[in-house]
Amino acid sequence: MHNSTLKFLSYLPPFFWPTVSLGAGIWLQSSAPGMAIIISTIACVIILTGYAGNTQAKLPLILGTLVLGVATSFWQKAPIFAAMPPIEGTEIVGSITDYAHLPHARIKHRLTMQLSKQKIKGFWKKNNHSIHLYTQQKPSALVGDVIHLEHITVKQDSGTSFADYLLRNGISGTAFLVRLEPLSVFRPAWSLDRWLYTIRDNMTQAIRTKLSPQGYALFASLFLGERSSIKKELDPISADFKQWGLAHYLARSGLHLVLFVFLWVMMLQWSPLPFALKHWTLLFLTILYFAFSWSSAPFLRAFFTLFLYKVCIFANRPSHFLHILSLITFCFLLVNPIQLFFLDFQLSFGLTAALAWFGLVQRSSLGAKKANS
What's the pLDDT tens digit per position in 20-31? Predict the structure, then answer.
């Protein structure tokens, strides 16, 4: 039994345990901050005294990533880093990075604003936080514009699931306005955010005119990953799917990117392009799909997995799915630790890793049986 367990564990990628240790540090800091400080201190002492090096070579890496998980989680959720200075009836300057039309009775428009500075006690100070601006009337400012607002009050929820959701998306607060009335608007001649938004908006509007409302809702949800503006059309369909426990089919996952790539692979197989050019073409088309659609954790996981696969092909290096997945998981948690507590991240990364590991163990077991027979 012991040998069998060790054999199964040997199929895990080398970076698996550091990734688990990083997640354990994030969980420990979020659930028991006091205990996290004690354990992190002990781990640092063990590493610095060289005791870990005398026991097992992997132990310093495990302890180091545990401390790293505690530190990144603290850094993200600590008020001095996560929350912006209080804003109540003050002035802010920043650029509009996104716009969304909402199917709400009163609040119909949402702008994402990346702040650059904020006026505190009569002095301008740098501020690199992002906020959501909700307005009743359609704003005149466009994506990419730099605007100057006054008398703005930004609400900051703390300790709630909605606050965690905003933190996960890099949003520090929300403000509700009847109309957007900036003191000044600076519109640069060219803006990457505006260029991407314009192409995406023109594309979706053209498709919307050619499909029925429910048909467009399904297309936007499954192929583009956009759900904020189609809630009214999607609700009746969602109710039917929920009745049969199939509501998750309406959310875009990594499988949809796999289908997209599979279709292009099938078409490129019939083209006379060189082998390397086919892979570059496929990677370019996938990046375009990524740029002009809405992202989610499962979609990002599939996109970066494909990207690293292509890097291995171009570098003429062997690739292994579990190795790539563990590296991507580690990077995701390092950049955005709070994702660990969201269900879509847990299912996309954890369940995918478990299925891939079981599949590898099963194939190896069947191969061993055939070799012995």
Answer: 999 999 999 888
Exposed/middle/buried for 162, CB within 10 Å: 0-12, 13-18, 19+? exposed
Neighbours of 62 (CB within 10 A): 17
Per-residue pLDDT of 127-152, as tens digits, reads 888 889 999 888 888 899 999 998 88
Domains assigned to the chain: 2-80 (no CATH), 84-191 (2.40.50)
Q: Could you count the other beta carbons within 10 Å of the beta carbon of residue 138?
A: 11
* Strands 173-177 and 184-186, sheet pairing: unpaired
pTM exceeds 0.85: no
Calpha distance 109→177 (Å, rounded):
10
Instruction: Using only the alpha carbons of the chain, give its radius of gyration.
Output: 24
Could you please report the per-residue DSSP string of 259-295? HHHHHHHHHHTTS---HHHHHHHHHHHHHHHHHTS--
Distance CA(253)–CA(270), nearest Å, equals 28
- Structural tokens at position 280: 């570059």
